[in-house]
C-alpha cells in the first residue's frame, strides 16, 4: 500500500510540474501575441504614413 501511495505522490508531482510548464508556455504565447499585435499596429501606421507621402508627391 505504501508503494502505491509513493507512486501516486510521484505521479501527482509530475502532473504539477507539467501543469506549471503548460501555464508558462501559455503565458509566453500570450505575451508573444501581444507583441505581434503591437507590431501589426506599428506597421499599419507606417504603411498609412507611406501612402500619405506617396499621395503628396503625386
Set down the secondary structure blueprint.
Elements (H helix, E strand, L loop, with lengths): L1 H56 L1
Keywords: Coiled coil
Structure commentary:
There is one protein chain. The chain has 58 residues and is mostly helical. The chain has one domain (1-58). The chain is 97% helix and 0% strand. The protein contains one helix and no strands. The chain has one helix at 2-57. It starts with a helix and ends with a helix. Keywords: Coiled coil. Residues 1-56 form a coiled coil.
Properties at a glance:
58 residues, mainly alpha, 1 helix, 0% strand, rod-shaped, coiled coil
State the total count of DSSP E strands.
Answer: 0
* Terminus-to-terminus distance: 85 Å
Poorly predicted ranges: none
Q: Strand pairing plus helix content: what structural class? A: mainly alpha
User: How many structural domains in the coordinates?
Assistant: 1
Number of helices: 1
Amino acid at each position: 500500500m505504501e508503494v502505491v501511495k509513493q507512486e501516486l505522490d510521484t505521479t501527482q508531482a509530475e502532473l504539477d510540474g507539467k501543469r506549471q510548464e503548460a501555464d508558462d508556455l501559455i503565458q509566453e504565447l500570450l505575451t508573444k501575441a501581444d507583441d505581434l499585435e503591437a507590431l501589426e499596429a506599428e506597421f499599419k501606421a507606417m504603411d498609412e504614413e507611406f501612402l500619405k507621402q506617396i499621395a503628396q508627391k503625386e
